[in-house]
Hints:
By secondary structure, the chain is mostly beta strands. The longest helix has 12 residues.
Amino acid sequence: MAVHKLVLDDxxxxxxxxxxxxxxxxxxxxxxxxxxxxxxxxxxxxxxDIDVNSGKTAYSIFEWEDEKQMITWSLVxxxxxxxxxxxxxxxxxxxxxxxxxxxxxxxxxxxTVNYFLKIDSEFSFSKEKYILDSILxxxxxxxxxxxDCNQLKSKDNLIFN
Length: 161
């Protein structure tokens, strides 16, 4: 009897993309504006945010598809803060619920990063050094650096469909 074996390769492993971490205190729309200004991109807010936690979280995302060079740029927030009601342990006459702020991360292994810039390309991407230098020239940005995508544990969170 013949033995049939199914090989399910993760197509995301073959994807060619560059991931850059950005540390800053800017709002997402302000950072997108500054990146557009310094990099010549046209990042625009997507209609719906990214949800990786079944409706509990929402990460803002700005995208631009450069059809001429066949590159997709994505600026996504790494931090999502939500308020949840939790019952108090001690008795109270008026309100026995208190609001607790919980923080969730798109990539939990990089909790100090504020934003990620993901650059999807069909071909090898060679402008990484130029882009990093351009981002570092923005005064409001503390630092930026490339991240090795092969070392990420939560790589599936970077699929933005």
